[in-house]
What we know:
Layout: E1 2-8, H1 14-28, E2 31-35, E3 38-42, H2 45-58, E4 65-72
Antiparallel strand pairs: 1-3, 1-4, 2-3
Amino acid sequence: MHVLITYDVSTISRAGQRRLRKIAKTCLDYGQRVQNSVFECEVDPAQYVDLQHKITAIMCEDEDSVRFYNLGNNWQTRVDHFGLKEPLDTDGLLLV
Length: 96
């Protein structure tokens, strides 16, 4: 399934700055950054639960906001992209 994750982390304090970095790093373990605080992740149901658990354990519910948008398996018909940074085709050939 394809998941879009967005977050807004308070960075007023050093603790908030650390939370911001940890959430971004956790998201990178599962997908790709498409904007500063927006990630696209291709995960199976178990990974989705694990990812939600990891991120909610990092965030501060009184100061931060995280949203998970489950776009499902047929996400290509639900996303229109314009401009730079073409999305990564996770089903295609990837050469490193």
